[in-house]
Amino acid sequence: MSYLIEAENLYRFYGDTCAVADLSLTLSKGEILGFLGPNGAGKTTTMQMLCGNLAPSAGQIRINGIDLVDEPKAAKRHLGYLPEVPPLYRELTVDEYLTYCGRLHGLRGQALRSALTTAKARCGLEGVGRRLIGNLSKGFQQRVGIAQAILHSPLVVVLDEPTVGLDPIQIREIRELICDLGREHAVLLSTHILPEVQAVCSRVLIIHKGKLALNASIAELDLRMRASSLIVETRQPLDIDALMRVNSVQTVTQEPGQHYRYQVFFAKGENPAEDIAKLIVERGWGLLELSPVKRTIEQIFVDITQKEQAQ
User: Fold this and answer.
1) What angle do CA 229, 232, 234 make, to 5 degrees?
2) DSSP assignment, residue 4?
3) Contact residues for 219 (Cβ-Cβ < 8 A; gap 6+)
């Protein structure tokens, strides 16, 4: 498989402080990689290295097979970048700003006009070309920022917190745009909004204290989130000893303050829900609720970072 981003054994030191340590990652066309980490984890430093704004202390970065340190101009031609604060000139119109950005990328004449038309169409900016950027809503300003990032049809698009400060409707619109970009580009998405990762990403990478803590597909993440316990509520009290004899059941606890509400823990990869329901019906305990308890992506994120902290 040919990767559009290959980063191998990256290190970055600030004096004696190691901000990123032995970090490796890859990204292919059609992938949307969610890049996560708590504040101070080294995310921004890594993003700056991947975009060529900061040289690694050690390690190698290749963009579409081109070494970013040895041939920075050639490598950066394949990169589109939206920083957390979009680099917009508020006193320019959308068309003026995008034309300026296109010329910086070497576009001229018909190629420039075609690029502007395509980028504006993909970002939903057709009706605001003559408006001043400073008069646009936050959501439209983010769209303009994304338009400048994809104007030159880069193979790799790097988006740093693209939905920060947006309202729910604007967030949904930007997510749809990111999904659309993921079909033709490789997208690296840095975000603090964890449900956003589940909504748009195909893979997740979590770093903590500059080190890789998790690199998994969304399918693998879903496996981690699968329920390993059930909430059971009955009309009559349960015989906990009888419930413990159900295959794969490990522990049964009664919820505080709830007369006949229990949490049943079972072995990972098993699901005794059907057997539990059958037992409750046979014994006449009166089944009122039987529902799985799923871990959220926030819980997994906290577990991983706390585990790394402990180590």
Assistant:
1) 170
2) S
3) none
Residue 238 lies in a domain: yes
Domain co-membership, 206 together with 286:
no
Helix axes 109-122, 168-182, angle to 10 degrees: 130
Whether 149 and 81 have beta carbons less than 8 Å apart is answered as: yes
Give the number of C-alpha atoms closer than 13 A to the C-alpha of residue 232, restricted to the C-beta side. Answer: 32
In-domain check, residue 80: yes
Q: Which of 90, 87, 8 is nearest to 49 (CA)?
A: 8
d(CA 288, CA 63): 57
Residue spans of alpha helices (H) in 130-210: 138-150, 168-182, 194-200
pLDDT (tens digit per residue) in 157-184:
999 988 887 888 888 888 898 998 898 8
Q: What is the pLDDT of residues 224-272, one digit of tens each?
A: 777 678 999 999 999 999 999 999 999 898 877 667 899 998 887 788 9
Based on the fold, state whether residues 218 and 233 are members of the same structural domain: no
Residue 294 tokens, joined: 């799923």
Looking up tokens 């994809």, which residue turns up? 150
Segments forming the whole domain that contains residue 276: 227-293
219 and 238 in one domain? Answer: no
Residue 59: which of 17, 3, 4, 18 has the closest Cα? 18
Closest by CA position to 187, among listed 9, 23, 35, 2: 35
